[in-house]
Write a structure and sequence with these properties.
The chain is α+β, with helices and mostly antiparallel strands. The chain contains 11 helices and 18 strands. Helix content is 35%, strand content 25%. The protein binds guanosine-5'-diphosphate and manganese (II) ion (MN). The site of manganese (II) ion has 2 residues, from loops.
Length: 379
């Protein structure tokens, strides 16, 4: 989950990292003046994307009227395809030095990449490489803290002290919450060495959610902001809309296979709508997952056809086909044709069943794609 800044700051606060006090104002809600911290304020559009400052989604407000006006103007704004549905109103920090610190999983190296810079802020992408200090270290908190202590040598005393202190708390949070990324940009550093995290980007690992009650709570409170993580938790499988205007809905199992299929379709000039790893092994005779997926695909106006692609090793294709027919009876929203590419155990039984439903079956991908293409061209 790429946490909204407000939620990331909630997590930081729970690890006693200093953040400016703030409240969340949601679209359609009313501004509760009694809950506001003392002004002046920053009004910050909540979208899981960077570059909000440059897009006008981080603004100063001196009066409550201004807070209300700026919030109203931000609601509904799109940034990188994501809509602002909430704003965080927080106490404005007096201008101070803006520095940078990030911890991220470096899977290839099997460690944690640590980056610090004395020059944080909105222009971080254009900071010269020599001004970014970075190292990859072992994945444990003492190694990360020792690394930051090394990297800050030679920096101004206040900055070095602030980054080291922040690193201790951030490293603990990083490992406790099983994060993939914790990035504070900017970390405001005051002349006396005091510091506060003015922005926060935290990405957590959805696969670790089952062990993270705090994150589960957060997800339950704001499921609409994190639809994909919510789905994975509630339904136990992965479904991601990869192209909101895609024409081909995918009914697939196996993450690698599904990703390869998306690549192949795109290479053929077609637009798949979604990624899906439905995990047929988890069906246990229950068509619920299929009903959900068919419902979502049926509700997507751009989807003109559905491609089923199953390589069945353990899965019995006859059982799969029977569940699919069951699901189709329960999900009448799907009005587009389906084409199946099936390989594996008990294919013959699936052929008989799907023929009854008028779903053509291929054992090779190319003719299945050709069939889809003919259909798309005719509609
Ligand atoms: P981003 O553009 O999405 O990374 O949003 P940030 O939260 O990092 O805000 C962008 C910029 O706004 C920061 O780099 C700061 O320069 C400025 N900013 C954010 N919060 C404050 C604040 O409390 N006080 C002041 N003076 N500037 C702020
Ligand atoms: Mn930022």
């Amino acid at each position: 989950m790429y946490l909204l800044e407000h939620d990331a700051k909630w997590l930081l606060e729970s690890s006693s990292v200093n953040v400016p006090p703030g409240v969340l104002l949601e679209l359609g809600g009313t501004l509760d003046l009694s809950s506001l911290p003392d002004g002046p304020w920053m009004v910050k559009g909540q979208v899981a994307a960077g570059g909000r400052g440059k897009a006008g989604l981080v603004r100063k407000a001196a009066t409550v009227e201004e807070v209300a006006r700026l919030s109203e103007a931000m609601f509904g704004t799109l940034l990188k395809g994501k809509r602002v549905e909430a704003v965080r109103v927080e106490r404005q920090v007096a201008a101070a030095a803006e520095v940078y610190i990030a911890l991220m999983v470096d899977a290839a190296a099997g460690g944690v990449r640590v980056i610090v810079s004395e020059q944080g802020g909105m222009e971080i992408e254009s900071v010269a490489p020599r001004d970014l200090r970075s190292e990859t270290v072992a994945a444990d908190a003492p190694a990360v803290v020792a690394c930051v202590e090394r990297l800050v040598r030679g920096m101004a005393a206040a900055t070095a002290a602030a980054l080291t202190q922040a690193a201790r708390k951030l490293a603990a949070l990083f490992f406790q919450s099983e994060a993939l990324l914790v990035e504070i940009n900017p970390l405001f550093v005051m002349a006396d060495g005091g510091w506060v995290a003015a922005d926060a980007k935290i990405v957590t690992d959805d696969n670790a959610l089952a062990r993270q009650p705090g994150l589960q709570q957060l997800l339950a409170a704001r499921a609409a902001a994190y639809p994909e993580a919510w789905l994975k938790q509630e339904h136990g499988f992965d479904y991601v809309v990869v192209d909101p205007e895609g024409q081909i809905g995918l009914l697939t199992t196996g993450a690698g296979l599904s990703m390869m299929l998306i690549d192949e379709l795109r290479a053929d000039g077609l637009r798949p709508y979604n990624f899906l790893d439905i995990r047929t092994g988890g069906f246990r005779g229950d068509p619920t997952r299929l009903v959900s997926v068919l419902g979502w695909l049926g509700a997507a106006p751009s989807v003109k056809a559905v491609l089923i692609n199953i390589f069945a090793g353990i899965t019995d294709l006859g059982e799969f086909a029977a569940l699919l027919l069951d699901a189709l009876r329960q999900a009448p929203a799907l009005r587009v044709p389906m084409v199946a590419r099936l390989v594996g155990t008990n294919l013959e039984a699936a052929q008989v069943l799907l023929a009854q439903a008028g779903i053509p079956i291929y054992t090779e991908l190319d003719p299945a794609i050709a069939h889809l293409r003919r259909h798309l061209e005719s509609c």
